[in-house]
Amino acid sequence: MDYFLTEEQQMMRDVAREIAEKRIRPVAAHYDETGEFPWPVVEAMAEADLFRVFIPEEYDGMDNGTPIMNMCVVTEELSKACGGIALAFAATGLGTMPILVAGSDEQKKQYLPRIASGTLAAFGLTEPNAGSDAAGVATRAVLDGDEWVINGTKQWITNGGEAEIYTIFCVTDPTKGPRGVSTIVVEKDAPGFTFGKKEDKLGIRASATRELIFQDCRVPKANVLGRAGTGFINAMRTFDLSRPGVAAQAVGIAQGALDLSLKYSRERVQFGQPISGFQGMRWMLADMAMKVEAARALVYAVARWTDSRPKERVTAHSAMAKCFASDVAMEVTTQAVQVFGGYGYMKEYPIEKYMRDAKITQIYEGTNQIQRDEIGRGVLVASAAND
Amino acid sequence: MKICVCIKQVPATTEVKFDPATNTLIREGVDSQINPFDLYALEEAVRVKERLQKEGQEATVTVVCMGPPQAEAALREAISLGGDDAILLSDRAFRGADTWATSFALAQALLKLQPEVVFCGMQAIDGDTGQVGPGIATHMDYAQAPYVAEIEGLERRKILVKRLLENGYERCSVRLPVVLTVVKEINEPRTPSLRGKMNAKKAKIPVWTAADLGAPEEKLGLQGSPTQVVKVFSPPHREGGQKWAGDADELSGKLAGLLKELEIV
Questions:
Q1: Which chain B positions have a beta carbon within 8 Å of A7's beta carbon?
Q2: Fold category of A7-120 in CATH
Q3: Whose CA is closest to A184, among A130, A236, A135, A227?
C-alpha cells in the first residue's frame, strides 16, 4: 500500500532497506546466537546517515521536520531483518529524545551532532524497584559545588555499555516525589560510572542490555536537561515520542515474519500441492496480512500526527500505536511459526527468532497493561472534557 | 588529488542473452545496474578520498560513464555511493564501440579531467573482456596496474599496490598518474547514504559528446572498432588433473617417469 511518504522519507526507507537486506539479514542469526554487539552494522548505519533522521538540520541532522515518522520508517525497515539489531538504532532515538525535548540549544549543540554521526545514546529510567512505577526512581543525584554526584543503579538499559551518551533519571529533591526527579546526561567515561553484566535474553539478543552502576559518579552541573525537577515530565514526553518507534519495530518484526511465511507457504508442498493452496492456510495468512497493515496504518497516522503537533501531549494515541502494533507482532509471529510447522520450531529456520524478538515489544517502554491504563485514562478525560 | 572512476551500466541479470543474428547483447527489457566490479572501483576511490581528506588533503572523485542517455541513472547511483560529481559520455557517434573505441573515448574524456588516479573494475559482467582499463591507460599514456587487490600505500608520486595474479600476488610500486583495475577482494562496497542520495538527486550531470572530446569520428563507435565478433561460444571447462591409484613403489616410479618426460628433472 502507498502511504504517501515524502520524497525524503522514501530515500530513508530505501537506504534503511539496503542496510537491512545487505548488512543485517546475512548476519542476524549470528548475532542472535552469540549475543555480540553488531558494531559493523551500526557503523554501516552511521555511514548511511540513518542516525540523522530524528535530529534537526541545525545539529547536523536531516529530520526535515518529521523526526518521529522518519524514525518509524527506518526502524520498521531495519526490524524486518532483525528486531534486535534495529534496536541499536531505535534505542539511540529513545536516549536522544530527552535532549530533544528538554535540552538547551547549548546542550543540543554538545550532543546531537555526535549522535547524528553515529555515537550511540541510551535512556536510563528503569531500576530494580522502579519499572512500571517509574516514579519510584531511587538513584540519587546531589549537587556538590558545580558537579552532580550520582549514586544508584539502573537496570535493563538498552545499549548499556555500548553507548557513549546516557540520559539518566535521578532524584535531585527527595521531598518532592515525582517533581523531585531530574534528567542528567552522563557520558560513558564519567568517573564513578560502570556497567553490570550483560543480560542473557529470550529475544532481541543482538541488543546489549546492562545495568548502569553509579558510585559517586561526578558530572558537570550543566548536564541537567531543562530545569531540575522536570525529569518525570521529560520521561513522559519522551515516551509520547518514542512509543511510535517501538510500534514501528513491532510492525517491522511482524512484516518480516509475514514475508517469510508467504514465501514458505508457496514453496512447501504437502498432499501434492503448495500449502498456500489450502484454504486454512490462506485464511491464516490473510489474517496476518490484515493485522500488519492495520498496525502500520495506525502507527504512521500517530507518528505523523505527533510530528505535526510537537508541543502537544499525544499520550493516549502513542500508547494505542505501541500497544496495538506489539500485540499484532506477537500474534503474527506466533502464527508464522505455525505456518512453518515443525520446521518453524527449529532454530535452523529463521522464523522462531521473530517470535522471540516480538515479545519484548509488549513489555518495554511500558508494558501493554500500562499502555491500556494510559489509553483508558486519556479517552475518559477527553470524554469528560466534552461534557 | 583528483580521482576518476570509470563505470559501465550493464544488464541487471546473470543470464546474459545474445542476439544470434548480430552476435551482440540483447539489452531490451532487462533492468540495468552498475557493473558490480565497478562498484568495488568506486568504493576504493571513495575510501582513498576519505583517507586523504582525513589527512587534511583535498580530494575529489569524479565518475565517468559512456553509454546511452539512461546511463545517467548509474551515475546518480554512483554519487549516492560517495562520488562527488559525474560526467556522461553520450553521443550517437559512440555507438557500437568495441573495447578499443570505448577506451579511446574514455581516455579522451579523462585527459580533459587530468586525474592522478583512475579506478576501473577488472572487467564488465556482460562483455567480460577486461580490456577497457588497460586500454584507457595505453591511450592516455598513463601507467597501469590491473587486478589490484589492495592499495598498500599512496604517496605524492607513486602508489604501492598488491595485484592478484593467477598464481599468487605481486606487489609493485607504480608511478602516478596511473590507471588501476580492481578485483572483488579489494573491499566491501558500502550501501548508499542519505546525504549521498540527496546529492545524487540534486547533481547536474553534464553530457559530453564526440565534439566535446574533440575526437575524430573515425576513431569512435563502430567506425573506430577494429573488433569483428565472428562467433560467441562458451570456452570448454578446464579439465581436472589425472588421478593415479596404486602402492607407493608403483606410484613413485610412475611420477619419476613423468617428471623425466616433462624434462623437469
A1: 201
A2: Butyryl-Coa Dehydrogenase, subunit A; domain 1 (1.10.540)
A3: A227
